[in-house]
User: What shape does this take?
Amino acid sequence: QVQLVESGGGLVQAGGSLRLSCAASGRIFLSDYAIGWFRQAPGKEREFVAAINRNGDRTYYGDSVKGRFTVSRDNAKDTAYLQMNSLNAEDTAVYYCGASGYYTDISNISYWGRGTQVTVSS
Assistant: This one.
């Protein structure tokens, strides 16, 4: 069964940084897909965070993370990343990566990860 695996979450103080990674476990190559990052806080709906196209030369971000988060990928390592800086308590959530065949419709996800918890202490 194909699944994505996120890593790099944890507890960080406000103002700190974390880098999340997303890799594939199964019979796919991440380099064949656009990658989206999403998050879900307790009691809230899943929120779009960032997206990157297959080549890694196009990105876009949710308004709440613009200027603080950076999405990237290393297709040689078949891994995608989410660098998160200037974290605040509102960034506390479970973060998910997803693989999509549609960069311009990134919510159309073919494969999801199980998520990694990010907790920001104030």
Notes: The chain is about 0% helix and 50% strand. The mean pLDDT is 96.
